[in-house]
Specification:
Radius of gyration of chain B: 16 Å
Helix content of chain B: 10-25%
Number of helices of chain B: 4
Radius of gyration of chain A: 19 Å
Strand order of the largest sheet of chain A: 1-2
Largest sheet of chain B: 6 strands, antiparallel
Shape of chain B: globular
Strand order of the largest sheet of chain B: 2-1-4-5-6-7
Largest sheet of chain A: 2 strands, antiparallel
Distance between the termini of chain A: 56 Å
Shape of chain A: globular
Distance between the termini of chain B: 24 Å
Strand content of chain A: 15-25%
Bound molecules: adenosine-5'-triphosphate, magnesium ion
Structural class of chain A: alpha+beta
Structural class of chain B: alpha+beta
Helix content of chain A: 40-55%
Oligomer: heterotetramer
């Protein structure tokens, strides 16, 4: 139905602009812009959706020109915007933090922590800051080659294992 | 908390029955390259009904059955069971726990299980659709795929909004 | 040491003339997301003759010209110069340094430069081909692209071998 | 010419098997396998090229099933195998280490150091171990938003900046 799509679209769009600025640290008066655009507004049930994403201080350009990390942060903003409108009871995020610098991992984990109040998040990661944000850690390893084994681990175990493996 | 635990047996790199409990909040899965982290994510997608072998990094669905190692022989089937908390009746069933299972034999024979009872794939799909877990592509993000929403065609991005509507 | 330095002026996020000296060995380029690291790699590919705007993440080639910021106006052209050490005559020219340059105006007008003298793209391509720098797609690996060799079609992998032959 | 292609193919293949085992720590008697395969050996000038890559202790399967990090290490092995046959005077590697765990970054940087004896390597990275392997470090930043600025930096500067940004 047109109305349901429109309402969902507007709600996601609202979140998108706000979350984008949180993730890109857009401060008051110095914000970035992020918006979803209906390519064919006259035909909402068929229209494709385009994305405008302009980091704070930069000029609007095609999103293809954004950096690897900026694209990832924009995608994270969009995914969580949809999530806010229609929360899943759980989500599995496999190495979302891979292209992010330390400051961006920090912002990403902040959002994760807030959202994890009402949903379960399972995150696969190599990143220490993401590990610190987790309440529970499972370590996967292959003491017998080719056979996975899972153990509950502490953050300190991870350091030890990483050092040994290094 | 909705997800309680997953049991993986014979799926990809998990020949030995493995049980992972899912607490509330954020659960981190860590370990070296190739140790099996993404395989857990694949197991979750598979038991929830994923039909495309390619999207599970295989060429045919049989590829998800433990293929053996230099020291161990292959197994004859893969099975995954995912148990949900149901005290708040997210599923319209009279159980406090609901367990969805899937098994695949090398012959191609496969079965779906609801609280260990055989059922059809359709029953699982309907159950998930009603519960709000459904076919929610944005709830399980595969490794390396996060940028795809940015580089996707306008029609594909539309699907993301439609699913939320 | 073969690469001596790059001069970037008006290319992508470099409105102010920027000179980077390249020592021998390993040079690390570090900095936050979106700061300009990959843009340096794009500048190198562009001055060596890259013709595809898409492979430089743009929609049209004009996208590589500094577009301005909230505080600065756009620029009218982009220019990159790459200077090579030539004491061992990797280029068949009587200069101890060889500098390859490229300039693009918003009008679409563009020029190629060899030691600051205008020349044709063809001259640059021939020079690079003879020197062993050539069209060596495996010498400049773009961000996120390393796995493509693995997931590529068999015909594309063949190209990699052919270029080395 | 058929002979030139064949010789190049064999040379790259030889390196591929050896480098793969170095990168995957395949020990004596416990090696992995990596090989290029001509899909149409009767027609070498037209034939496509396939890849077999079997980490130590694991069974041969389609390379699609390998993990993100394993695919990256296999690709690195192949790229450097070609490089050995036809060294470029320089190479630009943009975040090749992104999917790698600490132990694999260590092995990757070992290979980089050896190869950098005769070629220049420019590597873009967020990884501390890769930074430690570099002889020279340039820091790119945007004190004025949207305008890139480059400065020579020391490893200690990077730590300070990362902490501040965090
Ligand atoms: N059917 C199977 N039988 C045995 N092993 C398998 C099977 N399918 C996949 N594997 C193995 O699982 C491994 C990949 O595991 P996975 O993708 O979970 O790693 P990961 O921990 O996510 O690593 P990374 O950090 O690199 O992403 C591969 O080495 C592959 O050989
Ligand atoms: N023509 C242009 N004019 C102005 N800015 C541009 C232009 N083209 C690209 N940019 C900007 O350059 C930035 C991307 O830079 P780059 O890809 O080099 O980042 P990076 O340092 O590699 O980051 P990451 O660590 O995320 O990979 C984008 O924010 C983009 O807006
Ligand atoms: Mg993985
Ligand atoms: Mg980059």
């Amino acid at each position: 139905t047109v109305r349901l799509f429109r309402e969902t679209f507007e709600a996601v769009n609202m979140n998108f602009g706000l979350l984008f600025n949180r993730l890109f640290s857009g401060r008051q008066g110095q914000e970035g812009t992020a918006e979803l655009i209906l390519l064919d507004p006259a035909n909402p049930l068929e229209s494709g959706v385009d994305i405008i994403a302009r980091p704070p201080g930069k000029k609007p350009q095609s999103i293809s020109l954004l950096s690897g990390g900026e694209k990832a942060m924009t995608a994270i903003a969009l995914l969580f915007s949809v999530f806010l409108v229609r929360p899943s009871p759980f989500a599995v995020l496999d190495e979302l933090d891979a292209p992010l610098d330390e400051a961006n991992v920090e912002r990403y984990t902040q959002i994760l922590k807030e959202f994890s109040q009402r949903s379960q998040f399972i995150v696969m990661t190599h990143n220490k800051r993401t590990m610190e944000a987790a309440e529970t850690l499972y370590g996967v390893s292959m003491p017998e080659k080719g056979v996975s084994r899972i153990l509950g681990v502490q953050l300190t175990d991870v350091d030890t294992v990483a050092e040994a493996a290094g | 908390m909705v997800l309680k635990r997953i049991e993986i047996f014979g799926f990809k790199s998990f020949p030995d029955k493995t049980v992972v409990e899912f607490p509330s909040g954020i659960t981190g899965i860590v370990g070296p390259n190739g140790s099996g982290k993404s395989n857990i994510s694949d197991a979750i997608r598979w038991v929830l009904g994923e039909q495309s072998a390619k999207s599970l990094r295989g060429e045919k669905m049989e590829d998800v059955i433990f293929a053996g190692t230099a020291k161990r022989p292959p197994l004859g089937f893969a099975e995954v069971n995912l148990t949900f908390e149901n005290t708040r009746r997210i599923f319209p069933l009279e159980f406090s726990e609901v367990s969805i299972g899937r098994r695949l034999y090398r012959s191609g024979e496969s079965s779906y299980l609801l609280n260990k009872q055989e059922c059809r794939l359709r029953d699982i799909q309907d159950l998930l659709m009603d519960s709000g877990i459904g076919k929610r592509t944005h709830a399980i993000i595969e490794q390396g795929k996060v940028e795809e929403i940015i580089t996707a065609k306008p029609e594909q991005r539309r699907l993301l909004i439609e699913e939320a509507a």
